[in-house]
Every structure is written in structure tokens, then in C-alpha cells.
Amino acid sequence: MVKAMWNGEVIAESDDTVVVEDNHYFPRDSVKMDRLVPSEHTSHCPWKGEASYYSIKAGGVTNADAAWTYKEPKEAASEIKDRIAFWNGVEVS
Prior knowledge:
Metal Binding Protein, Guanine Nucleotide Exchange Factor, Chain A
């Protein structure tokens, strides 16, 4: 089972993650979406497409833009559609 933790809280937990570029992408239904707040931040990857971000709120603290998803990934990255990955201090193990 892989867990994503931040500020002492489990944000996501699944035995069905997809690893791309050393990042675990969790199925959306394994993520505590009540801890995520949509962000205006976006980024572009040449082979995955446009990423949308979320900030994480846990324990009264916000971790800005610490989760991302590819809502419409390019064909080469289709396996990460509807999945969410984490960074910026989120412990994934």
C-alpha cells in the first residue's frame, strides 16, 4: 500500500498507483478530495500535456500547488488520466 502524507495526515492511500518519472499517481477515488483545493496554477509537459494543480489543506496549514493531475493527458501518458500525484514536502511511501 502506497501512502501520501502531509502535515501528519494521510492524503491518499492505494495499492494501485502508476509510477511515472518517479512520481506515484493515485486513483482519484483513493485521494481525500476534501483536503484538496483547486489552484489556478498549471504547467505543461511536452509528452504528458497540461497539468492542473491543487493545494493541500491539512492540520490548518496549506501546502500550495502540492498536488497535480492531467485531466486530458496526451496518448503517451493515458495511464495517468484521473490520477493525482504529489510533491513539495508530501511524503509518498
